[in-house]
């Protein structure tokens, strides 16, 4: 039942991508921060954060924001590689800022609360977004990148009014889940209906005739993802039947690993796996193995979930199978090797962020604990 949220979130993202929401979010972000040195790049990160709260998918975030933002940066005098590297990295926020398809998969694999995972992803997502913005500002000052003229209050309010229908979606999803109005799966269904309504009748960027194509595209993506998930679940079932997780748990406990040592090993394993496999498959195969060990060592399962998601973010921009690299290459026309080179410096920032998330659990757990989601 939990996995039913995936096709609905994918459909919601498809409506939002087709419906021109990304352009409105970018315009709003430009009006907010475009006047800062390197403002176009900072606004691209802000747009990725906002779109991440609508789509739940990193590649979708890169495709929607990157196709518009990178071209805008190049026209304003930014190096194309600079823009590509930023959007490729900022796009990973698609699976950290809720709603997140990868979080739904982790919740299904470990029987944890999707709502609690969503809330746990809010502060880390905002923190990573702000860290990227600060890093961009520092680099932009050194490179003497241009800034846009400051937007007037009227322009800011106009862009906010145009973007508000898209921004309301995250309020509906998170507000509805936290208030108990609906479950995460029901929230995904509501999001899909709302996104379709906004694209068709509010923004009017698409017609009824285009609906079958959107449904077909999201259906293809759902089938592909569900096929991967089904095979991964089958493999996980075999592991459980053979009691491999229990054996590994007993072995790790006997070794006397400290929690910090265990988490270091987890990060290394996930970073290697992330370079070669799809995030949902990794979660479904490794979560049932790592989960019981973490519980035995006193590590909060929700904290472990956020650690796994951040590792999956890094996997999306790590060759040879980093999906965000391929999407960025497709939307910019740059060779894959050039995209990898452009994304590499910003990857160092993500690795530093991973260490903070791993060893400062309060970053992930502060909001769920404050909301009393125990």
Automatic annotation (TrEMBL):
One of its GO terms (cellular component) is plasma membrane. Pfam families: DctM. GO terms for molecular function: transmembrane transporter activity. The chain crosses the membrane at residues 38-70, 82-106, 118-140, 163-181, 187-203, 223-240, 260-277, 284-309, 321-340, 347-367. GO terms for biological process: C4-dicarboxylate transport. It is found in: Cell inner membrane. It is a multi-pass membrane protein. Residues 2-362 form the TRAP C4-dicarboxylate transport system permease DctM subunit domain. InterPro entries: DctM, TRAP_DctM. It comes from the Bacteria. Keywords: Cell inner membrane, Cell membrane, Membrane, Transmembrane, Transmembrane helix, Transport. Part of the tripartite ATP-independent periplasmic (TRAP) transport system. The complex comprises the extracytoplasmic solute receptor protein and the two transmembrane proteins. Belongs to the TRAP transporter large permease family. This is TRAP transporter large permease protein. It comes from Pseudomonas guineae.
């Amino acid at each position: 039942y939990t996995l039913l949220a995936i096709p609905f979130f994918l459909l919601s993202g498809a409506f939002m991508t087709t419906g021109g929401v990304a352009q409105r979010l970018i315009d709003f972000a430009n009006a907010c921060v475009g006047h800062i040195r390197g403002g176009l790049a900072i606004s691209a990160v802000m747009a990725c954060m906002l779109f991440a709260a609508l789509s739940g998918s990193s590649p979708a975030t890169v495709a929607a924001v990157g196709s518009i933002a990178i071209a805008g940066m190049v026209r304003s005098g930014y190096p194309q590689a600079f823009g590509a590297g930023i959007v490729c990295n900022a796009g990973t926020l698609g699976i950290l800022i809720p709603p997140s398809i990868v979080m739904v998969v982790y919740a299904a694999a470990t029987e944890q609360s999707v709502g609690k995972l969503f809330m746990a992803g809010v502060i880390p997502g905002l923190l990573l977004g702000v860290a990227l913005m600060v890093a961009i500002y520092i680099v932009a000052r050194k490179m003497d990148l241009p800034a846009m003229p400051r937007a007037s209050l009227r322009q800011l309010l106009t862009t906010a009014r145009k973007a508000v229908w898209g921004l309301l979606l995250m309020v509906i999803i998170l507000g509805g889940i936290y208030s108990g109005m609906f479950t995460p799966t029901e929230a995904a269904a509501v999001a899909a209906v709302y996104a379709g309504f906004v694209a068709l009748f509010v923004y009017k960027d698409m017609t009824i005739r285009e609906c079958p194509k959107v449904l077909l595209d999201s259906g293809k993506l759902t089938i592909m993802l569900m096929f991967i998930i089904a095979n991964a679940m089958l493999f996980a079932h075999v592991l459980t039947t053979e009691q491999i997780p229990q054996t590994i748990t007993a072995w790790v406990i006997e070794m006397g690993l400290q929690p910090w040592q265990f988490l270091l090993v987890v990060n290394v394993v996930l970073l290697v796996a992330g370079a070669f496999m799809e995030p949902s498959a990794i979660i479904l195969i490794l979560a049932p193995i790592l989960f019981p060990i973490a519980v035995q060592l006193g590590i909060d399962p929700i904290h472990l979930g956020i650690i796994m998601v951040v590792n999956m973010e890094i996997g999306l921009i790590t060759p040879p199978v980093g999906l965000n690299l391929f999407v960025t290459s497709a939307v910019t026309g740059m060779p894959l090797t050039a995209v990898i080179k452009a994304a590499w410096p910003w990857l160092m920032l993500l690795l530093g962020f991973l260490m903070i998330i791993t060893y400062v659990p309060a970053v992930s757990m502060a909001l769920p604990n404050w909301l009393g989601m125990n």
